Amino acid sequence: MLGFFKMKKTLRYLINNNKDDDIAITSDDNQPIKFSELKKHVYNISSQLSGNGILKTDRAAIILPNGPEMATTFLAISSYMSAAPLNPSYKLSEYEFYLEDLKPKIVIVEKDSSNPVVAAANKLGIEICEIKRNEAAPAGIFNLYNSTNSFEISEDDDEALVLHTSGTTSRPKVVPLTNKNIYSSAVNIAETLNLTSSDHCYNIMPLFHIHGLIAILSSSIYAGASVYTSVGFNALSFLDKAKKENISWYSGVPTMHQGILMRAKKNMEQAKNLSLRFIRSSSASLPPAVFEELIDVFKAPVIEAYGMTEATHQMTSNPIPPEIQKAGFVGKPAGPDVCIMDIDGNKLKPGSEGEVCIRGDNVMRGYEDNEEANKSSFTDGWFRTGDQGFFDKDGYLKISGRLKEIINRGGEKVSPLEIDNILMEHDAIEQVVTFGVKDKLLGEAIGVALVLKNGFQCTEKELKEYARQHLADFKIPKYICFLDEIPKGATGKLQRIGLAEKLGLE
Hints:
Number of strands: 27
Number of helices: 15
Structural class: alpha/beta
Strand order of the largest sheet: 2-1-12-11-13-14-15-16-17
Oligomer: single chain
Strand content: 25-35%
CATH class of the domain at 20-219: Alpha Beta
Low-confidence stretches: 1-5
Distance between the termini: 62 Å
CATH topology of the domain at 20-219: Rossmann fold
C-alpha cells in the first residue's frame, strides 16, 4: 500500500526509510508507535486530505498541545502539504494576525477545542478540522476525514513547514521551509549527534518551535531513533520520567536546563543513574557555569549548538566526544557552510569579528513576499544571520553580540514592534518603544519605555493587565518605564539598542 519511494530529500522518505518494527514515538498512557504504524498513518492522512479537496500546495495551521498527536500531526501534514504550527497560548488577536498572514486552508485542533483559534478561524471563514482519535490504536493515530483519494507525492522543493520569525522594523516575517530544508537539517543534526536506532530522546521542547520539530523529532525519525513525547516541560517530574523511559539524551534551552539542575542537585544519585549519552542545548546562549554544572551533575557531555528558523534550526554545533566541547562556544559548522563577513559582504579571516553568514540545503530560499528583507538578508547566496561572532583558532564559533534587535527571552524570539503596536492601541499611550534587558535567568527580559498622553493616567499594573489580554504570557513586559520623552537617534527614530543601560536597568 505504501508503495516504493525513491531516494528523495523529503519528509515522507525520511519516515519511510526505517525498519517497521522499530519504535518511533512513546508517550505516558498509550502503547508505543512503531514505524510501521507511523508510515501507515502518514499515508492515511495524505489520502484523507486529498479526498477532501486539499492540495499539497495548501497550508494547514496546527494548534495542538504537546504530545504524541502533535508529533504525528506535524509529520503527517508536512509529508503531504505545508504545516503551520502555532503556539496554543496565543490570544485571539494574535491568532487573527497569523491566520490572515498564513492563509491556511484548514485549522487543525483537538475535538471540542475551546482554544480562541476556533473563533479566529470562524471569523476569517477558515475550515476547522478536529482530529478524531482512534481509541484502539496507539496515541498519535487519528483520522481527519472519512473520504479518501489518491494523492500527489511532495517533491524536494515543495513547501513543508512555514513559521514566523520576528522583526524589529517590520511585521513578523514568514519563513517557508521546503522538504529539502527539513530533510537536510535532520540529517545534519543526526550525524552531528551520531544518532542511531538505539537512541531515545525525551522531548521537552514545544512542538510549534523549530527546535522541537527538527532538532528532536525529525532528526530522531531520520536515524530510526525514538522520541518520548511529553505533554510539556516539568522540571519536577523530569528525572522520574527520564528514568522510566531510559532516555539517552534530551535537548532544551538554558532555562530548562537550569530548572532540571535545581531538581537534580537534590537527587544526585538519581541524576547520575540516568546514563545519558549527552545533553544538548540550543536556541539561546548557555552560560558556561550551567555548562559545567550539567556535566558535573549528570556525568554526560554537553553539546551546545547554534540555530535559527531560517536555517531550519542547526548551523553549528559542538561535536560529540572524543572531540572537544567548548563552554561559551556554539561549536563548528555542522551541515551548512558558515563564514564571517564584514558589512560590505567581504569574508573575514579566522579570529576576525563580523556577521555570521550561512549557506546550504537547510537554509530557506527567502522570506515570503518580502523583497526588502530578502535583499538585505542575502549576499551572493549567503544568508546574513544578524548575529556577530568569530571563529577561534580551532574553528569553534563564538557569538559575541547581536546585530538584530530581536529580544531572545529564554529561547522565545519576541518582536519589539509587535509589542509596540499592541500597547499603542491603549488610549493613554502617546509613544512606546520595546527593548531587551539583560536577565541572568532568561538571557533577556522585556522592557518598555512609554510616554502618556496629556491628561491621561495609567499604572504599571494596568498596562501589564492590558498586555496580558492581547499577548502570550512570554511577551508580557517585565519592566515598564514612564518617561517624558523617549531617546531618539539622529534621524528621529526611537532608540532600542542601549536603552536598557540608559534607563539604569542594566
